[in-house]
Fold Oxidoreductase.
Amino acid sequence: MQWTPTHGEPYRPVPYRPARMPAAESLARAAELRERMDGRRTVRQFSPDPVPEQVVRDAVACAATAPSGAHQQPWTFILVKDPAVRRRIRRAAEEEERISYDGRLGEEWLAALRPLGTDEVKPHLTDAPALIVVFQQRYWLGEGGERRKHYYVDESVGIAVGMLLSALHLSGLAALVHTPSPMRFLSEVLGRPVNEKAFAVIPVGYPAPDCEVPDLVRKSLDQVLVEI
Ligand code: IYR
């Protein structure tokens, strides 16, 4: 059934009866998933090798199953493969990032980034074979220009991006959440409508053969989970 925005009309309840997974299987799956997810790393050095495009489309389809405020699904994913467009994005991002790293971020922020060693040079934007540029739809825009506010847009799009990163990783692809700031140039380069605001640029591909990642340590479960 084709989705159309609802406005006050109640949904019709339909049965939801997924077969209950036996506990033993649940435990085994959870443990395996935990280990696989722990193997995910943010990658900044990409191989230019192409990726199976349908894997990326399927990962976006997974992301688009995310829950959202009032089921408004306030997201658009732009898959950029065209090298010329990726070069334009890189040029514009590096211009903004240069200003940011030259001081716009402020000393405290720059100090927080120093351990990662990031700077204004962003080769991943042109090395990775694909970019997924995620836009949030701040409001719904009808064809006649009518507007309807969207709710919990940051939360909804954040959840969708988390699901996207999980799907990409579990399908064997590496990714980076890149947030050039300010991101307005992305709307211009990609010709997006006024109701959409760029949220993140996600290069997708395989790690370069000489890829390195920082030896960072994750917080333990004890540190992040409080059980009451
Ligand atoms: N957007 C900049 C700066 C940056 C900010 C944070 I917070 C990071 O975790 C990493 C980078 C950049 O992409 O370099």
Remarks:
- The helical segments are 23-38, 53-63, 83-104, 107-113, 124-127, 153-170, 184-190, 221-224.
